[in-house]
Amino acid sequence: MAATASASKVKNAKLVLLGDVGTGKSSIVLRFVKGQFVEFQESTIGAAFFAQTLSSDDQTVKFEIWDTAGQERYHSLAPMYYRGAAAAIIVYDITNPATFTRAKKWVQELQSQGNANTVMALAGNKADLLDARKVPAEEAQAYAQENGLLFMETSAKTAINVNEIFLQIAKRLIQAQAQQQQNTNGMVFVDRGDSRTGSASSCCS
User: Fold this and answer.
1) Which domain holds residue 20?
2) Which H or E run contains 18?
């Protein structure tokens, strides 16, 4: 019975990874989906698709993951993948400030072109290379807070926070869905009341 109940609550969620080439987007996905790390990962061409399910409380989220190419020549294809996405992870390399600057541009693009309800997370990848850090965690955290983003430093190599960032996204998606249902129920009730009082008041004004 429990399995049937949980299966009925599966939420499909399209998730896209964006970021500069070499930031480790594909490595993050590989670590999350297969629990693997490949030291020398070939650059993604266009985009790669993966699927993985994650459970939070009694809800299950099935992520349909699009790992986009970071090369500039593929930038024009990105809207095909982030359009309609429920969530996005924007990845930068903590040892490369240019990738953090690029991540901010991705955030701006999503904010202007994407769905306003998209759950966005900022991932500072390669957190295992602390000695080579060039982007302070405090700076990235402050930027994330200003823009309403989830923020975590991750390491695909050591698995630091990789599952956790997907879990936090899943929780936000579930909360957003519950809030949306609550608002919808409330709006239906309020609209009915307003329509009745509106028609009554208009006849007397």
Assistant:
1) 2-204
2) strand 10-19
